[in-house]
Amino acid sequence: MAKITASVYTSHVPAIGAALDLGKLHEPYWAPVFKGYEYSKQWMEDNRPDVIFLVFNDHATAFSLDMIPTFAIGCADSFTPADEGWGPRPVPVVKGHPELAAHIAQSVIQQDFDLTIVNKMDVDHGLTVPLSLMCGQPQAWPCPVIPFAVNVVQYPVPSGRRCFELGKAIRKAVESYDEPLNVQIWGTGGMSHQLQGPRAGLINKEFDNAFLDKLIADPAAAAAIPHIDYVREAGSEGIELVMWLIARGAMADVAGGPAPKVAHRFYHVPASNTAVGHLILENQS
Fold first, then answer.
1. What span, in angstroms and rounded, lies between the C-alpha atoms of 79 and 119?
2. Is the model's pTM score more than 0.90?
3. Going from the N-terminus, what domains does the chain have, and what CATH number goes with each?
4. Which amino acids are annotated catalytic?
5. For the segment 229-284, what is each residue's pLDDT rounded down to a tens digit?
6. 97: helix, coil or strand?
């Protein structure tokens, strides 16, 4: 049977992608950010999965205000990097895993979560920046990726508890797949940031690090954080952190297994106008 071996959590700041693409890795402003992912790139080399299930949010490229699914799973063979207004990022096409994606969709929907099935979708920086941070700049991504888009842009958005419960359903779906695949689940977005209004530029280090603490040691408490607390403490875009709870809900300890190993933790301010958070958790047998 397939199994989830690890979860990865990371911000997906668009300016990080631009810095990578323009060769700014060693500039004084950006060097501390990329240094925090040096361990992660080696970890990916040493722990290469068969499939990545990548939770992200679309930024008005695949979906518009005409149609915004709460949860959408990419079931296509491949996904092209999106043109977000300045041309697509110069990164590889994302290869999908339609068989596992369709199985997860079937299982999760039968567990009473409504998913939108997407058979054609361009993927933006929300998905490609995490891949670049973890995998560098390869000619091809190291494995297939199943994109899983969550609406955290247009209200109403899903609660942290709903996302956490969805993660549990995804774990069950993966474990019922009849092929011995090594699957990683990634939760992306966040951390604290606000892009508009009087509080534009807000960053809350205390909230961010407290969230990381909860995510590691008490994920149920993290899942219980009410929506208004994200907005108040982490800014209007801080709600992206609920996507991390999908990945955390899929870990073994939530289903009664042993606590995960913290392989890596990183936090840095600033990167563009946001805080960068990053965490790798490994399931223990």
1. 9
2. yes
3. 3-282 (3.40.830.10)
4. 125, 193
5. 999 999 999 999 999 999 999 999 999 999 999 999 999 998 998 999 999 999 99
6. coil
